Signal recognition particle subunit SRP68 (Diacronema lutheri), 339 residues
Amino acid sequence: GAADADGGQPSAQARAGRKGKQQDAVLELYDQLLVEDNDALELLKADLKLSTGKEGRGGGAGASARAADPTHLLLLQRHFQLRKLRHTVRRHVLMLSHMRDRMATGSTPPAGAADRRAPTAEELSRVYTVVLQHLAEMSALLDAAEDAADIESVDLASLSAKAHRTYYIAASCMSAGKWRHARALLDRTAEHLADADTVVQTLSAQAAAMEDTIADRARLAALTAELAGARCRLRASEMLQTMEAQQPAGLSQDSMAALSLERGAGKYVLDNLDAFVCTALPPSGAHNELTLLPSPLGFETVPCKPLLFDVARNAVTLPDLSVHQKQERRGLFGRIWGR
């Protein structure tokens, strides 16, 4: 497969391809499980018809026994309905993970796929709407006395789906330039996350140990981090749109690219921090007389861990600004001959 030039490690595209194949294999397994669930429900439906006499008399001793007490059939039907809904939700969640990966990397399905486009935020929000419908059906089937842990897990999954759906609707509004709607939806996402955190704090030990609950908590933590980034992107997009709207009509992109930040005479302020004193901003039209630093900066990539940034910050020597601080006269003669 493809590999990076430095260490022969597989590239991000190759890793995404392998992950996509694994997810497709798991989706096929879920499809097989759903077929088995449907077959079991069809058989139970036929047995229930026999037990209630809708198929007429006859059917042997087995049918007579089932007709006497159809309660066990109803319990089995409820069990397989919950099982089918649980498998359906898990399949949709796995499919959503695959769609998010494709949307983040901008990758497209392999040749021969029905849809060659990368998924959009609006498409993800629609799938989350379907997930919410299935979770609502599960909640209606669960018994408060017997399925308390399952109810807690479904409630957390519902809040997680609501938060994700609202987040991707906000992302769709951001792509359309609807900043006000996007901000309101991001705030709503934060409310759903706060509600989910409250549910997490009150989970029972049995519910907290469930596989679906653990996965939902991980997804909620990831969404919390994504929400902070989305708010920053929203603010930056608003500022850029405002700046573009305030540009003079005759100032094209080519003329903007031709401008230089290194105009003006004298030293850069960055190289003259010890002696520079600015009592007031330069007058309008004279901004080129004050040059802060050369541009572009000579940044270089440095391979290091985030912890080393703190070490590097401690090694920075800041300029001595004590000479610019106001010095008060001290002593007897200082107070007499002071101002």
In short: Residues 9-91 form one domain. Residues 126 and 189 are 16 Å apart (CA to CA). Residues 12-51 form the longest helix (40 residues).
